[in-house]
Design brief:
By secondary structure, this protein is mainly alpha-helical. It has one domain. Helices cover 72% and strands 0% of the residues. The protein is built from twelve helices and no strands. The termini are far apart. The model is unreliable at 1-5 and 13-20 (pLDDT under 50).
Amino acid sequence: MSSTTSAAPAAPPDALVEAVPALTARQVVVSYVGTVVAMAQAEIHKAGRERSVLVARAAQPLLWLLVFGSAVSRVRELGIEEVPYKAFLVPGVLAQSVLFVAIFSGMAIIWERDLGITQRVLVAPAFRSAVILGKAVSSAMRAVIQVAVVLAVVAVLRIPLEWSVLGVVGSLIAVLLGATMLSALSMVIASMVRSREQFMGLGQLVTLPLLFASNALYSVEIMPGWLQVVARFNPLTYLVEMLRQLLVGVGPDRLLLDAGVLVGGIVVTVAIASRTFPRRVL
């Protein structure tokens, strides 16, 4: 006597996969902000162990201000007649300090890639742009601390600036925006090279034109016509304009436009870095 067993019909493949509800807009925002904050906190924690380095880096802009500013203070054409050249130079020196700190922050990306840290970050369930933005914000916070130290020394030296709470706070916000944008640009550069030596060479190639083709050391009006056009497309020009208007009270009064250019620069550089960063470092 034989028995016949009938096999149960196989479940469709879709039934074996648990449906995952789509994230709401609020959950996406919370996840994105959480990733940015987590990345920034990790980088700031590392920077907290290098307090002496932060203070030492403030010496370079002070040397520019005291030595270069004193040497060329008699050349009236470089600045604006209404203010002493040292006062005119302070925002440019601050922007230069931001530029150097932010551009060379990408060196950490190469170190992390060589140590295998970047690979672990990239496989984490996080938005790539949030990772980039978090690292850029942490580098920007270092620049803000350095600028605060320089401003304290400038106050001790009694260089005639228009001191006010609004001006100082606004300047630190401008530094945060400018440094975030330049740090993201640094990550784009880091994704284009394979070694620290290549990064240093390319970083210097980018840094010097940004500095000298801006209004950091001299006013735009004394530049040749072609260089004035270049300066208008230079994001550092808009950072210097904000700092000069807030701290010295001279220059174009267009803070919202300057801030908008820097925010737009952050969006563009973070978007580019988000596309090049994962492709190049693996």
